[in-house]
Design goal:
The protein has 339 residues and is of the alpha/beta class. The protein has a single domain, classed as 3-Layer(aba) Sandwich (Rossmann fold). The chain is built from eleven helices and 14 strands. The protein is globular, with a radius of gyration of 19 Å.
Amino acid sequence: MRLLVTGAAGYIGSHAVLELLEAGHEVVAADNLMNSSQESLRRVESIIGCVVPFFEADIRDTQAMQEVLNAAAPIDAVMHFAGLKAVGESTENPLLYYENNVSGATSLLRAMKSVNVRCLIFSSSATVYGNPGRVPIQETTPVGQPANPYGRSKLMVEQILQDLSAADPRWSVGLLRYFNPVGAHASGQIGEDPRGVPNNLVPYITQVAVGRRDALSIFGDDYPTPDGTGVRDYIHVVDLARGHLAALEYLMDGSGCHIWNLGTGSGYSVREIVAAFERVSEQYIATRVAPRRPGDIAVCYADPTLAETQLGWRAEHDLDAMMRDAWNWQRQNPSGYGS
């Protein structure tokens, strides 16, 4: 198959591109490089030994996306990763998130419709569940009350896609609700390289370990959890990328809009993640407690049963592997792609 991958130079997008290529698919990459580096795709090319056609384009520009789709034709499906993803930033600048994540998605869909491409896998988020009444979270858990604008932007796009597929049965859509992607490719050549101060836990830990940050801020130690820190479901980015391949195979055999959680089914606290990283890396991570961040919740982890039942997919990397690969990436690339 031949796929367009938006946000292809980003953390998850670059790993998905590599997995798609290794599975024998053709890939065309698009990214506006707003929060990513084309170096990630150059390294994918080095690992896989082939050229990845690249277009610098913004999903908010419908004409530009039409031009990409026409130039790359024929395209069988689109994997849509492009978007902003920082919870804290979304509470400070919600309009930016609605413009990029929601308006950008509708722009992409218009471009796809104009060239008769109607298969899409959307990078959604567990934040659409808000503060769930219980865990583990199933796909049938009610949505509609995300705790932050980032989550609301993801939910809005989900609703748009559900409406679109209901109105036009030619569309085949997969909504993949991620939990917390971490880790890196085992080669250490591609990984998570956030611009500025990391918004996510593990890249902040690895930057402390290489001396780029003096200490990890733990945002809240008074949550109703065993050690007071937030509990999340961390999933290896390679497992996550492989989940997209499994969803792609499923979607090509039918139509409609389908939802799957991609997580491990286990929750770990912030302090447990720090301890696991220290054990694997043999590096001490200094920490300090800071106030809770707006939009954060206490506990969130998946029930991934549906993805295993329908897609034949489940996460294979354990917590030590996640921490080891994250550290391997950061140790080899202390300044990220700027190394």
